Amino acid sequence: MTTARAGAALGLALIGLALASLSGSCQGALQVGFYNGKCGFSDVEAIVAGVVAAQIGKDPTIAPALLRMQFHDCFVTGCDASILLDGKSSEKTAPPNLSVRGYDVIDAVKTAVEAVCPGVVSCADIIVMATRDAVSLSGGGRYKVETGRKDGLVSLASNVNLPPPSISVDNSIAAFAQKGLNVSDMVLLLGGHTIGVTHCSLFQDRLYNFQSTGKPDPTMDPSLASALRSTCPNPQTNVDNIVNLDQNPLSASIVDNSFYKQILSHRGILQIDQEIALDGQTKDIVGAIAGGLDFSARFGQAMVKLGALQNGSPGEIRQSCRAINTARKLPTSKDEQRTGKRQQRDNLRARSIPKRGF
Ligand code: HEM
Ligand SMILES: *[C@@H]1O[C@H](CO)[C@@H](O)[C@H](O)[C@H]1NC(C)=O
Ligand SMILES: CC(=O)N[C@H]1CO[C@H](CO)[C@@H](O)[C@@H]1O
């Protein structure tokens, strides 16, 4: 009996420890509706939705920008808003960031939620909520997002290991598997390319000199390749033009399964997009999504799975999405010495300046 009680006590202590260590990490327990009742009488998700709708109303291309932002944030060190941090060598300076846009939209949402309940809503959650709203405003299904993330304290360009557009299906499967995402998750998430654009420079080789053959990629519909050669001239001029990732002109900015129908018709733009329609490991999944009616729901589930990637490192609720809270800045040993000295100096100064009374 004593052992049972000791066991129970130990169990409780362990749970306590686990909770204590969770509270300060990015690995918050995610749940649908985490912010319910945490922002007075205000509905955090409604505030986010309002700002995102207004921004997308002004510029519909914000929707693909946000969707890509969630992928880039979550795929690198988990969904911790590390992509938002400014800095000389932070993630957003890495070459694959290319044209990640939408930082100002996240700032606008943050300003709106801080006005109502400061210090409550993480930037990492804002990316995920705003992306969900962008998807639903673009004709996709409205999936329920989990929230409760913390914002990370670290952002390094050297952590950015995003797949390039010429990645093989094998290597892409491996890269997603490393994040706990399986082949169907990968194929569904690549369906993000049902909206948005790519620059010519990222698939130019497929139009002119595929894998040093001196010829276009034989897997691309020749009439499409010919049309794209006029949009993307060779040699490139000094403007890098853009091309829709979903080549169905009626659906290029709608989140639906038309991207899969296009790649089955050899009208994929990025090399990896075309290859998932041809590779034995992925083509049946592509066929099923192209022929099915449940893309919206399945895409939502895959987005939630992408949104659950976390890294267990310490986290906080940032005041500004672009910088870690100064009070929380982790000092390097050099910084520590410096602030130590500065503090001594400030203390001395404080003592020598007589306090002015009112
Ligand atoms: C193997 C994985 C992936 C590769 C190699 C890849 C590559 C790319 C490339 C090269 C671009 C064009 C960038 C530019 O020219 O500015 C792009 C755009 C885009 N990607 Fe991906 N991507 C991948 C996965 C994903 C996933 C999982 C999502 C979301 C679920 C996503 C969403 C988007 C969106 C929405 C755009 C358009 C952005 C815009 O119009 O601003 N991508 N991707
Ligand atoms: C991938 O994972 C999802 C759930 O996370 C599951 O429904 C699906 O069957 C899995 N697919 C494969 C090919 O294992
Ligand atoms: C927003 C941002 O920092 N973009 C950067 C993306 O990467 C390129 C190339 O490394 C930089 O020049 C951009 O400034």
TrEMBL record:
It is found in: Secreted. It comes from the Eukaryota. Binds 2 calcium ions per subunit. Binds 1 heme b (iron(II)-protoporphyrin IX) group per subunit. GO terms for cellular component: extracellular region; plant-type cell wall. Residues 29-325 form the Plant heme peroxidase family profile domain. The record marks 68 as: Transition state stabilizer. Gene3D superfamilies: 1.10.520.10, Peroxidase, domain 2. Residues 327-358 are annotated as: Disordered. Substrate binds at residue 163. Removal of H(2)O(2), oxidation of toxic reductants, biosynthesis and degradation of lignin, suberization, auxin catabolism, response to environmental stresses such as wounding, pathogen attack and oxidative stress. These functions might be dependent on each isozyme/isoform in each plant tissue. This is Peroxidase. It comes from Eucalyptus grandis. The lineage of its organism: Eukaryota, Viridiplantae, Streptophyta, Embryophyta, Tracheophyta.
